[in-house]
Specification:
The chain is 46% helix and 11% strand. The protein is an alpha/beta fold. A 7-stranded mixed sheet has the order 5-3-1-6-7-11-10. A two-stranded parallel ribbon has the order 2-4. Strands 8-9 form a two-stranded parallel sheet. Strand 10 (256-259) and strand 11 (262-265) form a beta hairpin.
Length: 367
C-alpha cells in the first residue's frame, strides 16, 4: 500500500510539474510576440507612402480574378479568395501605374477569407479603401470581361479557386490568348489552378515543360489531412500530370517561378515578389518599396533553412541595425509548424531566433 502511495505521489508531482512547465513556457512564448496594434485597423491608403507618394503615370490596366466558391466541395469547410493575396498585389499594381479591375466566375460579391493573424497595413488599407471595396463587391463576371482592355491577368489564390477556375471556359480562353500573345499571366497559391486545363492552339497543355510553382502537396496536407477527398485534385499533382516542371520551395515561404510571361507563386507569402515580377515582365522597373516586417521574417527563415541558426541571427541583427524589423509572430508560427512537420529539433532554434529578434528590437529602441 505504501509503495502504491509513493508511486501515485511521484506521478502526481510529475504531472503537476509538466503542467507548470507548459504554462510557464506558454506565457514566456507569448511575451516574445508584440501585442496587436489596434491602430493598424485604421490604416488608410494615404498612410501608405509607397502608394500615395511619388505617383507613377498611368500605364494601363491589370485584371485580378478571384474565386466565387464559398465551400470546399461537399465538406463543411468555408472558403473564398484570400484577402492578403488580392490586397498586396492590388497596391503593387496601383503604385506602379496600373488600374486594377476585379473579376470572378460568377461576378458580384465573392466570398473572402480574412486571416486576422496575417493582416498588415496594406490589407487593412484595402478594407478601408472605398474604391477597392466597391470593386470587390461588384466583381465583373468572367464571361463579361473584355480581354483587350488589360495588359496582364493575375489569379488570386484561395482554396475555392480549385473548384471554379479549372473548368471555366472564359478563364481558359483568356489565359490561352494572353500567353500566346506574350501578355503576362500571373497566379499565386491556389490561383495556378486557372492554368491546369488550358490547351494552346497547337493542342498541347499550357503547362507542358513550363517551370511553375503553386500550393504544394505538403502545404495542403499539413493543414487539411483529408484534402485528397475534399478537392477535385491536389494542385501540385495536377500540374506535374500536365507536364510542368514543378518548383517546390520551402513550406510556407516565399517562392516564385518565372518562365517567360508565365509567373507563378507558391503560397500567400509569395504575393509581394510575384506582383513585382509581373511589373518587371511588362517592361518596367518596380517602384522602390521598403520591405515589410513579414518579408524580412521570410528572408530570415529562408536563411535559417539554408545556412542555419548562426547566420540567421546575423541577418536579424543587420535588419535591426538598418532600422527595420522582422515579424516575430510569423517566425514563432514557423516554430510551431516545425513540430507539426516532425522537425522537433528546429523548434527550439526558431523560438530562440524569435527571442533574439525581440532583444535586437529592444536594443534598437534605446538608440
Amino acid at each position: 500500500m505504501f509503495k502504491k502511495y509513493r508511486v501515485l505521489k511521484w506521478t502526481s508531482l510529475f504531472i503537476v510539474s509538466v503542467i507548470v512547465f507548459v504554462v510557464c513556457f506558454w506565457f514566456w512564448l507569448k511575451s516574445l510576440i508584440p501585442p496587436f496594434d489596434k491602430n493598424l485597423e485604421l490604416t488608410q491608403v494615404k498612410d501608405l507612402p509607397y502608394v500615395s507618394e511619388n505617383i507613377v503615370p498611368q500605364r494601363g490596366k491589370i485584371l485580378a480574378v478571384v474565386t466565387s466558391v464559398d465551400m470546399m466541395g461537399n465538406s463543411d469547410k468555408t472558403t473564398g479568395y484570400e484577402l492578403t493575396e488580392l490586397a498586396r498585389a492590388y497596391y503593387i499594381f496601383t503604385a506602379n501605374g496600373f488600374e486594377v479591375d476585379i473579376a470572378s466566375p460568377k461576378g458580384g460579391k465573392p466570398p473572402v477569407v480574412i486571416d486576422d493573424e496575417d493582416m498588415g497595413a496594406f490589407d487593412f488599407a484595402f478594407l478601408n479603401d472605398s474604391v477597392a471595396q466597391f470593386k470587390t463587391s461588384n466583381t465583373i463576371p468572367m464571361e463579361n470581361v473584355v480581354p483587350e482592355q488589360y495588359e496582364a491577368v493575375y489569379f488570386v489564390g484561395g482554396k475555392g479557386a480549385m473548384f471554379d477556375f479549372p473548368d471555366n471556359e472564359a478563364i481558359q480562353s483568356l489565359v490561352r490568348d494572353y500567353y500566346q500573345s506574350n501578355k503576362v499571366v500571373g497566379a499565386v497559391c491556389h490561383g495556378p489552378s486557372a492554368l491546369v486545363n488550358v490547351k494552346l492552339d497547337n493542342g498541347k497543355p499550357l503547362l507542358e515543360n513550363k517551370t511553375v510553382s503553386g500550393f504544394t502537396n505538403k502545404e495542403e496536407l499539413l493543414l487539411i489531412s483529408d484534402a485528397r477527398t475534399i478537392f477535385p485534385f491536389l494542385l501540385q499533382d495536377k500540374m506535374v500530370e500536365q507536364g510542368a516542371n514543378f518548383d517546390e520551395g520551402s513550406m510556407y515561404l516565399d517562392n516564385v517561378s518565372h518562365d517567360q510571361n508565365l509567373i507563378t507563386g507558391q503560397n500567400p507569402w509569395s504575393t509581394w515578389t510575384l506582383a513585382e515580377r509581373m511589373i518587371q515582365q511588362m517592361g518596367y522597373t518596380p517602384k522602390h518599396r521598403e520591405l515589410t516586417a513579414e518579408e524580412n521574417a521570410m528572408k530570415v527563415l529562408l536563411d535559417f533553412e539554408k545556412n542555419g541558426k548562426k547566420q540567421a541571427k546575423k541577418m536579424i541583427k543587420t535588419i535591426y541595425e538598418d532600422n527595420k524589423s522582422v515579424d516575430r509572430m510569423l517566425m514563432a508560427k514557423h516554430g510551431i509548424m516545425s513540430i507539426m512537420k516532425g522537425d522537433l529539433g528546429d523548434f527550439p532554434k526558431l523560438i530562440s531566433l524569435v527571442s533574439f529578434a525581440k532583444k535586437c528590437e529592444s536594443e534598437s529602441e534605446k538608440i
